[in-house]
């Protein structure tokens, strides 16, 4: 456990995110020039067999008991593999156990800790997700091809096909020029790079209070506008299922898209609250009714205007153009009242979302009883909820299957190994078409079956 006063840089905000539009301009030429300068040395010039004790594995785990169990199984697999190939047991760290600071899920604040603890005695820090299968002997062989005395950033590259809000419209002139890692395939930093970044963080603490897409922002931070290394593509870091015909060449693979985590919750145990407003009654509400409304057993529409034709309920909170904190907290209060059926779960959805955020009744009860409130009706509800839950010590369990933007805003290779739960925003798309392509059950089942059988649906 890292001491609370450990100098890991500024704290990053809690796991709920707030979208903002901040256009960034980067030079593609600078990207290419910086990469060539940093990585001029030939890889493999001194190939050698890396020993397992030279590698520190960091599993991107969460505090939720289900995720802790998965992380421990992944750790046990790595240790067993090391024993099978007669190697020393590697260091395997679980991210959730390294710090009391919930913001450290963003990894960057922990780099000084990694440097101080392992920067001298280890060659590589390898990050992997709970569902990432690792073939240890193959991975050690791959790492041995790179001179660990130099700065390396290794991974499976993702790229944007168009500039997107979740990446702050970076590289707008050529979005595909910048590569960032697919966390599911694992990614690695050499110790010299970790040590330099740690020193940079000590001298220049992180200024951002939140993150939107961690994998892209980490890659930007490492690249440093051409002063640091760009991502080096490693074909053997894969996101194919373990039984895929191509998996024989892979050092990493992925488990099946949807983990078995218990019996499904009955839809009668979920109360659905749809946030809307009068100006969107005719535009957005019909989309909800044409798509997923029929899947909800208990649902109400909340607006600034009571419209019996929908019907909508006026919560007495005026519509706001920015955040919707006042409306969200009014919904939380109503959920605990006698006005709605008592259920174990509350699902809050924007009217332009094809499904969104979920609360257990216990979480809502503790949140309402805490006295935590909006500082204004138009405060960003996700940020306020994040701060309140963090203060209460209630962790937010993250799922990458909930998406805060449109399918077009994500790399195709990233979505290819997912069975998505939700998307957000309707602009420049046909939301009904998106729903049927990505979220209808028969399509989801088909995607899952194809992934398990080694196929890939054309996107």
Overview of the structural elements:
- Mean pLDDT is 85; it is low at 1-27, 33-42 and 446-459.
- Strand 12, helix 7 (285-290) and strand 13 form a beta-alpha-beta unit.
- Strands 2-1-3-8-5-9 form a six-stranded mixed beta sheet. The chain has a five-stranded mixed beta sheet with strand order 14-13-12-15-17.
- The longest helix has 20 residues, at 65-84.
- Helix 3 crosses helix 5 (191-203) and helix 8 (325-335) packs across helix 10.
- The protein is 29% helix and 15% strand.
- The chain has helices at 28-38, 65-84, 111-118, 136-143, 191-203, 214-223, 285-290, 325-335, 361-369, 381-392, 412-416, 431-439, 441-453; strands spanning 55-59, 91-94, 124-128, 132-134, 153-155, 157-158, 180-181, 187-190, 232-233, 237-241, 252-254, 270-275, 298-303, 312-314, 345-350, 353-354, 357-360, 423-424.
